[in-house]
Amino acid sequence: MADLRNNFVGVRSPNPFWLASAPPTDKAYNVIRAFEAGWGGVVWKTLGLDPHVVNVSSRYGAVQWNGQRIAGLNNIELITDRPLKVNLDEIRQVKRDWPDRAMIVSLMVPCDEQSWKTILPMVEDTGCDAVELNFGCPHGMSERGMGSAVGQVPEYVEQVARWVKQHSRLPCIVKLTPNITDIRHSARAAYRGGADAVSLINTINSIVSVDLDLMAPTPTVDGKGTHGGYCGPAVKPIAMNMVAEIARDPETPNLPISAIGGIGTWRDAAEFMALGAGNVQVCTAAMHYGFRIVDDMIAGLANWMDQKGYRTLEDFRGLAVPNVTDWKYLNLNYDIKARIDQDKCIKCGLCHIACEDTAHQAILKEKDGKRHFEVVDSECVGCNLCMHVCPVDNCITMQRVDNGSYANWTTHPNNPARVKETA
Amino acid sequence: MDRKDHADIASGRLSAQQLAQNFDDVAPPLDRQNALIAAQRCYYCYDAPCIQACPTGIDIPSFIRRITTDNLRGAAQDILGANVLGGMCARVCPTEILCEGSCVRNTGESEPVQIGALQRYATDWVFDSNTALFERAAATGKRVAVVGAGPAGLSCAHALARAGHDVVIFDAKPRPGGLNEYGIAEYKVLDFAAREIDWLLSLGGIRWEGARTLGDDLHLSELRRDYDAVFLGLGLTGVNALGIEGEALAGVRNAVDFIADLRQCPDLSKLPVGRRVVVIGGGNTAIDAAVQSKKLGAESVTLVYRRGSASMSATWAEQEFAKTQGVSVIEWAQPRRILGDGAVAGIEFEYTQLDDSGRLLGSGDYFTLAADSVLKAIGQTLIAPRANGDGSAVIEIRNGRIAVNAEFETSVRGVWAGGDCVGGKVDLTVQSVEDGKRAARAMHARLSGNGTAEN
Ligand SMILES: Cc1cc2nc3c(=O)[nH]c(=O)nc-3n(C[C@H](O)[C@H](O)[C@H](O)COP(=O)(O)OP(=O)(O)OC[C@H]3O[C@@H](n4cnc5c(N)ncnc54)[C@H](O)[C@@H]3O)c2cc1C
Ligand SMILES: Cc1cc2nc3c(=O)[nH]c(=O)nc-3n(C[C@H](O)[C@H](O)[C@H](O)COP(=O)(O)O)c2cc1C
Ligand code: SF4
Question: Ligand 2 center to residue B404 CA distance, Å?
Fold first, then answer.
C-alpha cells in the first residue's frame, strides 16, 4: 500500500495535499473542517501587521468555458481582514488540536527589517511549522509596496528571505509571483537569501471579463473594476512550466518546491510532483467543490502509486525532470503520422477541416463519393492537431514511422550556429 | 351487438384542469441554461450530416454555435433564412428521421444533439417579440397568386414578397396555415400557428384572402390572366374511404375532421369524444387522432394497422409516444365490417399476412372490437378537379399528384406547385416549406426575366 506521508523541508504531514493560503484557510472554523476532511496541511491565510486591511464587496470573477463554471477564477481580495491576535490565537489552538497536520503561516509585512523582526517571534510562538512569505499578491498589497511589488524585484526577495532566516528558526518558504518574465530569477534570489523552499505560483494579473452593459471589468465594484489574480484550472499549464524551469535550473539545485496553481485532482498533483515538486497546494478547486475533494486526491494518488509500484512519494518525485529539455535537443528524425480508426470514426469532419484550413491538407474527406476521412501520409507532418480536435477517445492516434535514428538542431545544416562536425 | 340509437360520444369526460394539463406543450421550451448545455454537445461538424438531412438545409452547426455565443438573432437568421417556418418545424418535424437521426452523436452515444429543441429556443423570441428579421427588396411591380395557405404556400409567398413581388394568398379555409392550423396535433403547437403567421405576414407585400376556393369562386384562367405567376399549394384535402359495410353509421368519421374540430375548438371540455375509440391507419394522422382521443378522456383507444409497425409512415418515435399515452396498437389486421344499427357499435377485423411475393392477404381469422367511435385515417388525396376546374388549361396529374418539373412548374406554363399536392419526397411540413422556397426561386427567376432558377 502506497505511503503518502510527506516531509517537506522538515515539515511532516500525512499526505502531500495542503490548502494554499486563501479564504479556505482564513480562520479556525475552515481549517478544522479541512483537517476533518483529510487535508495534510494548510498555509494560513496571509497575516499582516495591524491595523488589518479591509476588503471590498464583489470579489470574484470567473471564466466559464463550454458550460464549465470555473475554468479560471480571479479575485481582488487582499490578505486577512481580521486582527493579528485573533489569527495567532486560532493558529495556536488549531495546531495544538491537530499536531500531525502541517501548519504554515503566510506573512506579508512592509519591506523593512523591523516589520519582520516584530512579527516573526509572534508567529513562532504559535507552534506553527513554517512560514511562507507572500511575495505574490498582485493587487491591492503591491500598491502598498508589498506582495508582488517585492516579488518582482529579486534583490528584495533575497533581502527579505535573509531577514527571515536571521530572525526566526522556522523553515522559510518563499511564495513566488508568476507576474515576471523569468521565474528562475526570483527562485535564485530566494535560494541565495537562504530560503528553505519556494512555492508557486501565486495568482496571475488578469481581467477575466468585461461586462458589456456596464462597460467595466468584472468583478465590478459599484461601476469600476480592477485587475485581479487569476487561478484555477486555466493556470495549471503556466504553473507547471514555472515549476519545471526551477526544478531543472542548475543555479537552484535541489531547491524544494511546493507546487500551486490549478490543482484539483490527484493526477494534477502527480504531474507537478513528477516535475519535481515536493508537495502541492490547492485553493480554487476547494473553493469550487468544498474540502471533500481531498478524498479522491488521496485515494487516487495511492491507487495510481500502487499500480505503478511506487511505494513513497520520493519514488516518483522529479522523474519527469530529466525529460524536460530545450527544443534544440529534440530528435528531428522522430516522425509520426496520424491514424484514424475507421471503426471509431463518427464522421464529424473536424479533423479534416482543422488540417485543411490550418495545418497541412493531409486529411481527405471523401472516398468513392462517400463521407470518409483518411490521412495522406506524405502530407502529414505529425503535428497532432487532428488528434486533439477529434471528439472520440483514441479514434485518432499517432504512429511512429521513423527508423529510430537521432539528430537535433545543434548539428542541423539549416542552423547557422550549428556545431560543426569534425572532419 | 346491442342496438343503439346513438353511440357513446360525449364531451366533458375530463375536468377542464385535466384537459389543460393533457394538451399542454408536449416538449416544453429549453431555458437558457439547458439550451447552452444542449448546444455545447454539438461538435460543429464540418459539412455536417444534419444539414444534408434537413430538407430545407438549415446550417445547423452554425445556428447552434450562435446560440452558445448568445447571438440569438444570428441563430434565428440562420434558421428562418433557410426555412421561414423554422419555428413550426422545430415543433413538428420528426427529427428522429431527419437532422437528429443523422447526428454523429448517435454513433458513439445513441443520443443526438437536441436540434429541434434548440431550433425552437433560437426562434421563439422572434415570434414572442414579433421582431422583423427580413426586409423586402425594391418593388418589382409583379403580382403573384398563391392558392393554399399551408406551409408550401406560405413559404413561397414569403420568399416572393421578400424579392419585391406583390403576393395574394387565397385559401378555401377561413384561416391561413393549412394543416398547421387545422391538422397538426394541438399539444405540439398550442397557439403557435397563428402567431407564426402573424409574424410571417408582417413582412408586408402579402395579402390574405380566406374563404376563396379554387374551382368554386376562383378559377385558374382568371388567376393566369390577372397575375404574373401562380403557385398551387393545395395539399391533400380529399380522404380515402374504407369502402366497407357500415361506413355511414353515426360515429364513423374521418380522423382529419375530428382533428380539425379539435384544433378549432376554443373549449376542449365541449368537444365530444367516443368512450371506446378505434382508429384505423398507421400514419401521423392515425397517431395524432388516437393520442388526442385519449387525451380528451376516451376510456380506451385502439389503433389498428393492416401491416407491421415497420411499414407505418408514423416514425418509431411517434409510435412509442402513442403507446406511452395509453394507446393500444394492433398490427396486421384490416377492417372488414363496421357493425351497428344506426350508430356504430363495433368493428370486425380480419388478421392479415404477407404471401411469398409480399402481397397483403387476409388470413381468414376474424375478431371484433367494440367501439363507440371509429376514426378513419387511411390516407389523404388530391382533389384534382378543383385545380383543373374550368378546363381552360389542364394541369397534368400523375400518380394522384400534380406533376411538376425540377423547378416545380406544372404542365401549365406560369403555374407552379409544391407541397403535399406534388408529393415528391415525404409529406411533411418541412418538405412543403422547401418546395415552396424552391418554386419561389424559379418563379422569381422567371419574373425577373432570367431563364434559370439560380439566383
Ligand atoms: C393530422 C396530421 C398531422 C400531421 N402531423 C405532422 C407532423 O407532426 N409533422 C410534419 O412534418 N408533418 C405533419 N403532417 C403533414 C403536414 O401537415 C403536411 O405535409 C403539410 O401541412 C403540407 O403542406 P401543404 O402546404 O402542402 O398543404 P396543407 O397544409 O394541406 O395546406 C393546403 C391548403 O390549401 C388549401 N386548399 C386546398 N385546396 C384548395 C382549393 N381548391 N382552393 C383554395 N384553397 C385550397 C387548404 O385549405 C389548405 O389550407 C401532418 C398531417 C396531418 C394530416
Ligand atoms: C480569493 C483568493 C485569495 C487569495 N489570497 C491569498 C493570500 O492571502 N495569500 C497568498 O499567498 N495567496 C493567496 N491566494 C493565492 C492562492 O493561495 C493560490 O496561490 C492561487 O489561488 C493558485 O492556486 P489555485 O489554482 O489552486 O487556486 C488567494 C487566492 C484566492 C482565489
Ligand atoms: S497530424 Fe497534423 S498534419 Fe498530420 S493529419 Fe493530423 S492535423 Fe494534419
Answer: 72
